[in-house]
What we know:
The chain has helices spanning 3-37, 59-79, 82-102, 106-111, 130-136, 151-154, 158-169, 175-187, 189-200, 203-214, 219-222, 226-246, 252-267, 277-287, 293-310, 314-327, 335-374, 379-399, 407-410, 412-416, 430-447, and strands spanning 49-51, 448-450. The chain is an all-alpha fold and 452 residues long. It contains 21 helices and two strands.
Amino acid sequence: MSTTERIGRRRDLAAAGIAALLVTAAVVVGTAIEHTDGTLHLNWPPLYARWDPHLGPGSPAALAVAVAVIAYAPALTARLSWRCLLLGAWITSTAWIWSLALIDGRHRGVAERLTTKYEYLQVIDRFQNIPATLRDFTRHILIDSPDHWPAHTAGHPPGATLTFVLLDRVGLGGGAWAGAFCITAGSTAVTAVLITLRALADEDTARRAAPFLVLAPAAIWIGVSADGYFAAVTAWMIALLALASTRTVRFPAVAALGSGLLFGLVCYLSYGLPLFVLVAAAVLLITRTLRPLPLFLVGTAVVPLAFTLAGFHWWEAYHLLVERYHQGAGGIRPYGYFVWANLACTVLVVGLATVAGLRRTAASAPGALTRLRTGRTTPADRLTVLVLAALLALLAADLSGMSKAETERIWLPFATFLLPATAFLPKGGRRYWLTAQAVLALVLNHLLFTGW
């Protein structure tokens, strides 16, 4: 091992150590604040969770998946054909998410997750007449309004709730089907990110990142939360735009239009996800083309136009949401704590391996941005720009003050595009970093009961 490699690995460990200290500080300071004045409204800050050591039916399966990925994935991802890699990554990601969810049991871990008083499924019966409900949607956002919406319905545009309404309409009603849908959809984000990495950087970059995308601690919150489904939609939006921009798909125009359609949908799933325009812009910047933009914009207009014609007005609802946010816990939770504790949450979502990868991303950023201006970028440069764009979007969400707590699930779409930074990790230590990822996820899921 060269001196440069040794220095790089030491710096990776130092970055991971600093991240661990950040999490420790968030736990200690947050616990002190909560015990003093209760303003965090969290049982185990900075996470929305409670201390609950337990085992469950998913425990053996989760351990088996983790061991298998650590032992075999680094070699298999280098040998498998591309199509087999995509299929294998999706299947393994699905197994990892399901096994982690089932540590809490079938009912508590899956079927009951989306049926609490805060969740979308509580209002399914109020959407018997969808157009009328959309026209009336904003009247029920504020807490003091008649029949106000539950927290998650009020806190999101109606596209989120309509997803579960439509599932119910086709015979897939109830918490178990909703949970299964979120896990199935959320697990496909791995495939979408791999496609994006191959299109924008190269296949080798995608293969190096694949085991870390599969074994991410983020799987804890993908199973089961609607935000895991949102993460998949944003991931496929970026994947289609990458394919259209690089023209590495048979019908790039269809990909550009489809990407725009998904971006329009994203804006009606969560008020914070329009920030993904930064990641989309990075794709166009990396590929140095605006060719997909017209069809992308046409596609983007479809969903907003449909909702507006149906009587739902996004900006009016957003302003009411801001007021509702400050009527509840969001108006009490201290910005000065969460503006940095949210980043500690992100460490727990992406894992220490990603932190080390982000350290390498930051180190390569000056050269990558310089070469980006000349158009003579390497695959590593293009990966750097993509990850930096996702990080910038996450930081914008953080500074907005509209994401105080619960960011372990709310920021899943952004975290999904931080994970590829692991492709920068050196080959020799990859199994150690994968082990760190798995251990973090298993410890969190067995010691805490996470909720939302």
